[in-house]
Design brief:
Blueprint lengths: L22 H4 L22 E3 L1 H5 L6 E6 L9 H14 L4 E5 L3 H12 L3 E7 L5 H9 L3 E5 L3 H14 L3 E2 L5 H7 L1 H10 L5 E5 L4 H15 L8 E7 L4 H4 L21 H11 L2 E5 L1 H15 L5 H12 L9 E6 L7 H7 L12 H7 L3
Parallel strand pairs: 2-10, 3-4, 3-6, 4-5, 7-8, 7-10, 8-9
Antiparallel strand pairs: 1-2
Bound molecules: pyridoxal-5'-phosphate.
């Protein structure tokens, strides 16, 4: 398979049409790419920043809240931002195969971009703790999926060693190109708002994304693109909150499987972000995560996966601390369709089953 051209040109594109060419082309001058880099892209990025007035109303005091809906990336999570960079650089360096440990979304992204670059993808996942949609993606994209009897932290240990001993490139967020790609989400937020928000609320697992956002905001600040820097508010699931307690968690536990991580790979970076931004790490319980998950869908029409809802759950938990009239962005890291089991299991809205095939009976069920 050939790599798509770096500069896409649609001969008959209408004036005013969205001619987005992916995040590497858009932010090329901020990224470690050169003319020699083969850009492997699925046109990721350019995701919407959606106002959520129902959530803002729960805080009041003139606070404005937006969600950065990164579930609309090509494989349904922000991991695509990092993967377009990591796979393009791996391709440039002549790699034939990539490997990652994953709670699911990294494997879906690695599998898709690796296939696009005609590389083999190996993914190591914790058996039984990957949401169905993510597993389905990795399989269909053609990755070699290896489920181990261990958690994410164990999987990461294994793939690190494999990449040191075998000809496979590691594309976890310890790969520096991942964070380079992911920082573009901060650029997009500033490009839309005209400045950085006062607060950025974000779910934290391995802490790659919070580190990447901070890198993006500080680089844009230095370039004069924004006047301020946000307070970085990271939220972890209460059963997997090592950055809150200050110690690794041996058996992390939460239904938000994307952040079920006991020993974050980017621990030191995360602490540095908290210090530099005057931010905080706080825990949110699974109950609070599910409340925010349902609220986003039923009040705002935005379906995200449970881990993503941790950002909104966290904002609502610490809402008294939000300054009057502040602008807050909550990052929604992944699409709700990734984890349909969770949605069906935890929806308070029930399927009306066993209704006869009869007009009047259906109308009656409808309340007419
Ligand atoms: C990977 C992921 C996270 C956690 O991001 P980190 O960079 O590991 O902190 C959160 N939510 C979703 C949906 C993810 O896929």
């Amino acid at each position: 398979m050939s790599i798509p051209p770096t500069n896409l040109s649609y001969p008959n594109i209408a004036k005013g049409a969205n001619n987005w060419q992916g995040l590497i082309e858009t932010y090329r001058s901020y990224l470690p790419v050169s003319k020699a880099t083969p850009v492997v892209t699925l046109l990721e990025g350019n995701t919407p920043l959606i106002p959520v007035p129902g959530i803002a109303a729960k805080i009041g005091r003139g606070v404005k809240v937006y969600v950065k809906y990164d579930g609309l990336n090509p494989t349904g999570s922000f991991k695509d931002r990092g993967m377009t960079m990591a796979i393009s650089k791996a391709k440039e360096e002549g790699a034939k195969a990539v490997i990652c440990a994953s709670t699911g979304n990294t494997s879906a992204a690695a599998a898709a971009y690796a296939r696009r670059a005609d590389m083999k993808a190996f993914v190591v996942i914790p058996d039984g703790y990957v949401a169905l949609g993510k597993l389905a993606q990795a399989l269909l994209y053609g990755a070699e999926v290896i489920a181990i009897n261990g958690n994410f932290d164990d999987a990461l240990d294994i793939v690190r060693q494999l990449s040191e001993n075998y000809p496979v490139t590691l594309v976890n967020s310890v790969n520096p190109y991942r964070l380079q790609g992911q920082k573009t989400a901060a650029f997009e937020v500033v490009d839309v708002l005209g400045d950085a928000p006062d607060w950025l609320c974000i779910p934290v697992g391995n802490a790659g994304n919070i580190s990447a956002y901070w890198m993006g905001f500080t680089e844009y600040h230095q370039a004069g693109k924004c006047a301020r820097l946000p307070k970085m508010m990271g939220f972890q699931a209460a059963g997997a909150a090592p950055l809150v307690s200050g110690e690794p968690v041996k058996n992390p536990d939460t239904l938000a499987t994307a952040i079920r991580i006991g020993n974050p790979a980017n621990w030191h970076k995360a602490i540095a972000v908290r210090e530099a931004s005057g931010g905080e790490f706080n825990p949110v319980t699974d109950t609070e995560i599910l409340d925010a998950y349902r609220l986003l869908a039923s009040e705002e029409g935005v379906f995200c996966e449970p881990a993503s809802a941790a950002s909104v759950a966290g904002l609502l938990k610490v809402k008294e601390q939000v300054p009057d009239n502040a602008t807050v962005v909550c990052v929604l890291t992944g699409n709700g369709l990734k984890d349909p089991d969770c949605a069906v299991k935890h929806s308070q809205n029930q399927l009306k089953q066993g209704i006869p095939n009869d007009l009047e009976k259906v109308a009656k069920v409808m309340g007419f």
